[in-house]
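Rather than argue in generalities, we reproduce a single protein record, letters for residues, whole numbers for local backbone shapes, just as it appears below:
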Amino acid sequence: MTDLNRLLDALKRPAGGSSDFDLNPGITLPPDRRLRPAAVLLAIWDRPEGQRLILTKRSSHLKHHPGQIAFPGGKVDAGDASATAAALREAQEEVGLRSERVQVLGSLPTHETVTSFSITPILGLVRDDFTPEPEAGEVDEVFTVPLAHVLNPDRFVVERRRWLGQWRSYYAVPYGPYYIWGATARILRGLAERVGR
């Protein structure tokens, strides 16, 4: 079975959401916190060397998460018809991937971030070819990772760092020079778990 078929099967399986706090049960979240809706695109691109996942390296000049590895995506704007529409719009703005080149396969459970976003991951297949165009000022680099790499739970590690005076554990799934961690790695870990069931 191809990785794509495994993904399609995984989308049919029920699963709960995830959060940046999954590995940190001791952190107490305020009950009145307000989550802002966001969406990201997990864009799978068929290449001669196999299926790859498109990721970005955020600009080192950004105020939030500078230099981190992320999916194309961002907050859901008032003009967006849905989380899917937001993910597609952001992918076009950030990496030049036009929405008509994406076959939407479905969505994954939401992920809550430490920065109070509720992210809906949208899974899509890139049709045809395109030349990535990183948005100046927001994206330093567009690159791809083998889909098989991020669908293998054995590639993930749990690491920790201090956050607001406390140790916080998180998933990471390094690939070459790219340190994929935090919400991006947690979303991928959830997908890998579903595919592996």
The longest strand covers residues 36-47. Residues 3-17+33-146 form a domain with the Nucleoside Triphosphate Pyrophosphohydrolase fold (CATH 3.90.79.10). The chain has a mean pLDDT of 89.
